Amino acid sequence: MRPPTTELSPTQRSAALAHRDGFRDAPTKPANLAAMTHFDLETDVLVVGYGCAGAAAAFEAASTGAQVLVLDKAGGPGGASALSGGEIYLGGGTPVQQACGFDDSPEQMAAFLRAALGPGADAQKITLYSADSVEHFHWLADRGVPFKPSLWDTPTWVPPTDDGLMWLGENSWPFTELATPAPRGHRPTAQDFGGKLLMDVLVSAAESAGVTARFDTVATNLIVAEDGSVAGVRARRYGQEFTVRAHRGVVLTTGGFVDNEQMLAAHAPRLLGHTKVSAGADDGSGIRMAQTIGAAVRHMSTGQVGLSLIPGFAARGLVVNGRGQRFVTEDTYPGRIGQAALFRQDLDIWVILDEQAYEDVPEPQRWGVQPTHVAETAGELGDLLGLPPGALAATLARYNEFASRGADPDFHKAPRWLRPLTPPLAAIDIKAGVRPPGQTTARRGTGASVFTLGGLHTTVDGEVRHLDGHSIPGLYAAGRASAGLHGEGYISGTSLGDGTYFGRRAGRAAARHA
Questions:
Q1: Which of 274, 360, 348 is nearest to 310 (CA)?
Q2: Selection from 495, 514, 513 nearest residue 56 by Cα
Q3: Which candidate, 147, 123, 136, 133, places its Cα nearest to that of 60?
Q4: Is the whole-model pTM more than 0.90?
Q5: I need a surface site. Which of 271, 297, 451, 497 has the fewest CB within 10 A?
Q6: What does the mean pLDDT of the chain come to?
Q7: Which residues, including other chains, have CB under 8 Å from residue 37's CB and lie 6 or more apart?
């Protein structure tokens, strides 16, 4: 039987384009402006990549009156941003926070982010981002991004409701001792994943500002003048090469490099072999193009790790390693559990529950996850899991002793989640789990889903730094193509928040550049 004919999605077209044009192995050696006899296209500002950072950069540049062209290798705009949960990390006293009864300040927001995104987080960018967070909220709202003034109050990856505010670890230890807790996860009003809604709004705004775009297009080389300034790019579309002259600047918003196995092996080998969170085109091309002219990079070994872990189960139970020991507070942001599990425990971890802990999580929030092992005692369960003899029983006995008093001196889990666990007991094998909720962009690997955090070293205005410390004239970057706010840590919403905010700044800076 002949299969039905269907139109390729943007992601499928991107994959086909990658196969045909071999963009992962595309030449990146810079081209010399002096050797150019003509340009096929000319613009003021050229943006390469049409995710959230690219859309924000394009809109802001066009709003100054600059002519703006966007190139993207996919068949349409959106990238991984459109397939994300849509969380945007905002605080400092946004209208949604105030409506939900929370006082917040830029100083408290910055204190949390410095701790949560470190070590190595960019303190200058965090301070600026926090100070401008309320303004950035209004910028998003003015473009048409809707936020419902209601709170989802339990640990989760993505709320199963359209609530516009959620906790992202701010109310968990050790952050409760470092900053006044306030929820800062802002979600566009959507029943599940808000990334597509966010991108629809940002792309519409960019188009209304006069931005034009060419899709199915791979930027292969930067064009550089004799003085080292960036003047445009070489690109390829359907096998045909062409050149673009950017009179004011080039903004790289091409995403990270989780889809590039060679780059992962060289910089972040811990991320190899796991499910990739991307739209299939995070090949590091923008990073590599910039590196050919001496651009500096930061934190290339770092990554975010999502686990096949239901946060409601973790908060109500225990998370133990292969020695039967706790290693993290279970009611924190689940991405922190993921990073600790992969980078410190090699994913050899288990979630331990009793029947009440399982039943207390509403069925829609379980995402189909079932226990993989059940036993009548902690000792028997530990034996089933291959843990050291008596280890799980000792861990559970200590936990239960203090939980009965409403305390957790080891990891300071909030009293709300403390309760002695009683037999029969169950375990969930994280390695054998399902895709983490909210990660619709993931392609299957192990029980961990990963993306990269490292990228180009940029100023607060998106100027790409050279290895010698100076800014490369005419070259800017934002989003996951840059290191952004992040050090070794991550919090949901700091990709879309960082990308849109610093994308805006990069777009304005590029438009101002002569």
A1: 360
A2: 495
A3: 136
A4: yes
A5: 297
A6: 92
A7: none
